[in-house]
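Hello,

Our lab assistant flagged a job as stuck in the queue for most of the afternoon. It eventually completed. Since we weren't sure the result was trustworthy after the delay, we are filing this so someone can double-check. Below is the sequence as submitted and the structure that was eventually returned. Let us know if re-running is recommended.
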Amino acid sequence: MCFNIGIVVCGPNEALVISGMFQGGKPTFINGGRAIVCPCIQTVQRIPLNTMTLEVHSPRVYTSQGVPISVVGTAQVKINGSSEEMLGYAAEQFGGKPVDQILNICLETMEGHQRAIMGNMSVEEIYRDRKTFSKKVFEVASVDLHNMGIAVISYTLKDVRDEVGYLASLGQARTAQVKRDALIGEAEAKKESTIAEALAEEQRMESKLANDTEIARSKRDFELKKAVYDTEVNTAKAEAEMAYSLQAAKVQAKIKEEEMQVKVVERTQNIAIQEQEIMRREKELDSKVRKPAEAEKYRLEKIAEAERQKVVLEAEAEAEAVALRGEAEAYAIEVKAKAEAEQMAKKADAWKEYKEAALVDMMLKVLPKIAAEVAGPLSETNKITMVATGDGPIGASRVTNEVLDIMGSLPDTVKKMTGVDITTRMARA
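-- returned structure --
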């Protein structure tokens, strides 16, 4: 059974690869034909020669500018059956493999080259120059696939899109340019149309003016001929019309002059009214704001001055009252002391047996009472106002000094009254 000879047939879209004995050390390739094969000593493999369509997807690939885009390309590939060398490469690479596996190998190879070309180009180059992009992918992929025995028939860029709105921005910019060009074209067309209309209108006006000139010339000739016969009438009429026009111009000039005078008077009156209004407002401001403010200032100053004078007069009156009260009390004490001294003198005359020591002892007993009587009015005083001229002590020391001065005058009074010098006696003691 191993030597049963069989006939193997293949269609025009496939090739037979016969290897084994009787092949001279290399396989035999048959396209679209038949061959006699010995199954035990020879092997037959079929290689598809159909055109295979690849849809190459490259999602989110970063271009040379760093912008991620997605590209979909379509490629037509097939194993080249017209070249025995290519069939040898294909048999080596894809012998015994199903068509799906061959398609997957080709797809991955195409996608790798597509992604590489995308990384070397900018978005604008890919989007605007698809032909260059397709050519680069075709050329690079053809080299690798040729080594696999596969020929790239065609490659086209099917779709370009992105998820960040970059292409939309390019489209908007291009749309704006197209709109701008359209507006410029429309403006230029309108300009040309306007120029043509102006030229036509100019020609029309030239024709009309030429006709009008001819008509005017004819009328002038007629009027000149008629003027020869109506010179006097026309001269009188012209003089009358000139006189009328001159008089009318004079009247209009006078009217204009009167109108200007009226406007000048109105403006003068308006200026006078405005000046009166300004003066009225100034007087109103003076009467309602400035004068009351000055009066209030004067009133406050007078009140402050009166308060100051009042305080000074009260202080002076209080000081004078205290001084008079002190002098009166001192005088009363002095009179009382004199009376008591006279009484004591009389007692001394009466009592000759009293010695100076007894008198001194008596005076020492009386002195505290005198001091208490002198200081008594001060203890009853609720308020003391001091007025000083700047000379001597001030404040409470002044009052104390006055009391001490009164007490210091007592020894002299005693000496005058009794002839006894208390100060000397106390020093001796």
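-- support follow-up --
The delay was a queue issue, not a problem with the job. The result is valid. The two ends are 181 Å apart (CA to CA). Strands lie at 6-9, 14-20, 28-31, 34-37, 42-48, 52-62, 68-79, 150-162.
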